[in-house]
Amino acid sequence: MTAIGDNSSKAETDHRLLVAYYHRKDLANHFEAKRIADERKANRKNANSHGISSQKLDHYLKSVVADDKQKVVDKHLSDRQNLEWMGLIAKTSGGDLLDQAERVTGETLVRAKGFQAGLLGNDRVSGYMAGSDEDHWWLTSYDEGRKEYDTKLPDLLARINEQADIEAPPEDEDDDEG
To answer: Around Cβ 152, how many Cβ atoms within 10 Å?
Structure first.
């Protein structure tokens, strides 16, 4: 008869099973993360071959997924101001940089947001009051962005693939003659 509280064998078995259970999940996550990282690396390499830097894609992604879009704008304004102060870029015309940034509001900004949402294939929901001018501007621009993506991207990709085929070295032809 086993002594009361003598569950060491059962506890060890349970522990071993739990380790295996969590390890399987960790292992699956590891390989999924590796697959995603490899896919991202290939995407970045392709983008780079078309003149699109990883830095640009990183900035774009951070801007799109940012919870606080104003932080993205503030960082841009600060970076731009630093470059102006260092004399690396011309000072923004028309007065204070912040004043200029504040002028980019209203219809222009709403339309830009809608167009971008259409290009990215986001949901067709403006976030503005239904039937308002802003809602109309956003939805119209969304449709324009979506149309541009759907109609022009296939041609662009075909031209890129065609160019890649032209630049590719010719395949060796198998010579089966004996």
So the answer is: 10
DSSP 65-82: H-S-HHHHHHHHHHHHHH
Prediction pTM value: 0.61
Residue 36 burial (10 A CB sphere; 0-12, 13-18, 19+): exposed
Residue type, 127: G
CA gyration radius, the chain: 27
In this predicted model, what pLDDT tens digit does every residue of 2-46 receive, in sequence order?
Answer: 455 556 788 888 888 999 999 999 999 999 999 999 999 999 999
CA nearest to 89, candidates 102, 101, 77: 77
Q: 98 by DSSP, 3-state: which?
A: helix
Task: Show Cβ contacts of residue 149 under 8 Å, excluding neighbours closer than 6 positions.
Answer: 118, 119, 121
Give pairs for 158-167: CB < 8 Å, separation 24+.
Answer: 160/50
Residue (of 148, 142, 146) closest to 128 by Cα position = 142
Query: Residue 39: what residue type?
Result: E
End-to-end CA distance of the chain: 83
Angle between helices 54-65 and 8-49 (to 10 degrees): 120
Alpha carbon dihedral 60, 62, 65, 66, in 10-degree steps, equals -130
Of 72, 52, 49, the C-alpha closest to 62 is 72
- Tell me the backbone φ, ψ of residue 19, rounded to 5 degrees: -60, -45
